[in-house]
């Protein structure tokens, strides 16, 4: 008798079988025979056990993934606030800059007007054609021009410093936006992990889930014009398109 | 010449106003979208409209169509200054009767060129 045959039925089982038959328990005897012929697959049991454990762990991990919860309840609202901060700061900067520039325009115009006013008499002086009366008046005008220029260049300088300082938003908004980009990346990773937990590979859904860019007519600034062929890249493209249409 | 500048961003209205003032337009009024702009146009004797496309409420393209559909306003030249850069949109604006189309970001020189062209055509 081979080893494998020895493994099929135990002495105990054989004794039970004899006992069942001797005591006229036919059903029990048949059941025992069936059990001996179809031994329960211990490998299958082990596999089911492993899967059960994995499922249990996955569900537990899923519950424990409080990161996802934090992202949804705290960090995304926080990101919205951060982006609003960017809007506010850039708007402030634009207004500060325009305040300064709009204050500089009239100052420059004033100096330019005074220069224009002295120019004819100055030209006469340079050509030795000026008389004493005009010369005296020229001296008064130039005196006034020097005073204006001296005073107003100091004003312009200070306003230019305001323009310079208004650019500090770039550093601050840059940091804020970088944080939001990190958050978006983290949300993306979490969502991919979730898909993986449900046995969906991110490649499976990539094609079907790809956003159909350009579905909406009004899209705002196009940030990747070089990757798109349905948009113009610059004003020259617009002009070419319009003239090709006969406009 | 009386000009109406329509944009939902006050900073952009301010930029356009400054550029227009530099080009000699001094009578400039503002509206923050098409639905504010249209009654202003119907109520006042405007000679020229500069408008953005993407605005809450009535969009620039709809304002343009409304202007062209209103016989008392139809003659007013309309210049679009917008970030909208889809060819489809530019064609749509042209078909709706726009007089000029400038894509943001733009320069003072571009604005001057387009204005010169618009008023040269109108004679």
How does this model look, in words?
The complex is a heterodimer of chains A (247) and B (123). By secondary structure, chain A is an all-alpha fold. Chain A has helices at 3-8, 11-22, 26-37, 42-64, 66-126, 132-166, 169-197, 202-209, 235-244. The termini of chain A are far apart. The model of chain A is unreliable at 1-5 (pLDDT under 50). Chain A is rod-shaped, with a radius of gyration of 43 Å. Chain B is of the alpha/beta class and 123 residues long. Chain B has a five-stranded parallel beta sheet with strand order 2-1-3-4-5, sandwiched between helices. In chain B, helix 1 (10-22) links the parallel strand 1 and strand 2 (27-31). The longest helix of chain B is centred in the C-terminal third of the chain and has 15 residues, at 108-122. Chain B is globular, with a radius of gyration of 13 Å. The chains are: A mainly alpha (247), B alpha/beta (123). At the A-B interface, helix 5 and helix 9 of A face helix 1, helix 4 and strand 5 of B.
């Amino acid at each position: 008798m081979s080893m494998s045959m020895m493994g099929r039925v135990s002495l105990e089982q054989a004794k039970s079988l004899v006992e069942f038959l001797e005591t006229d328990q036919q059903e029990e005897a048949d059941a025992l025979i069936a059990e001996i012929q179809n031994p329960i697959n211990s490998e299958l049991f082990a596999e089911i056990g492993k899967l059960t454990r994995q499922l249990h762990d996955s569900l537990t991990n899923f519950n424990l993934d409080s990161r996802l919860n934090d992202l949804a309840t705290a960090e995304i609202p926080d990101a919205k606030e951060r982006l609003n901060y960017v809007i506010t700061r850039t708007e402030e900067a634009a207004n500060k800059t325009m305040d300064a520039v709009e204050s500089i325009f009239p100052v420059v115009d004033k100096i330019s007007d005074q220069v224009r006013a002295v120019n004819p008499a100055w030209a006469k002086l340079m050509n030795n054609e000026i008389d004493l009366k005009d010369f005296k008046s020229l001296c008064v005008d130039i005196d006034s021009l020097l005073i204006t220029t001296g005073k107003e260049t100091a004003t312009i300088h200070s306003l230019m410093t305001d323009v310079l300082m208004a650019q500090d938003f770039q550093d601050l908004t840059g940091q804020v936006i970088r944080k939001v980009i990190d958050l978006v990346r983290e949300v993306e990773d979490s969502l991919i992990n979730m898909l993986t937990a449900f046995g969906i590979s991110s490649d499976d859904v990539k094609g079907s889930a790809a956003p159909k860019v350009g579905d909406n007519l009004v899209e705002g600034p196009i940030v990747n014009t070089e990757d798109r062929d349905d948009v113009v890249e610059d004003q020259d493209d617009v002009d070419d398109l319009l003239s090709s249409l006969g406009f | 010449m009386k000009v109406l500048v329509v944009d939902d961003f006050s900073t952009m209205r301010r930029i356009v106003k400054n550029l227009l003032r530099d080009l000699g337009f001094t009578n400039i009024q503002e509206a923050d979208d098409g639905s504010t702009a249209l009654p202003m146009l119907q109520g006042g004797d405007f000679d020229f409209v500069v408008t953005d496309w993407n605005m809450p409420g009535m969009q620039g393209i709809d304002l343009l169509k409304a202007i062209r559909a209103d016989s008392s306003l139809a003659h007013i030249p309309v210049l679009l200054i917008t970030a909208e850069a889809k060819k489809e949109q530019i064609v749509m604006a042209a078909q709706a009767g726009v007089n000029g189309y400038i894509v943001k970001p733009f320069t003072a020189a571009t604005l001057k060129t387009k204005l010169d062209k618009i008023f040269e055509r109108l004679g």
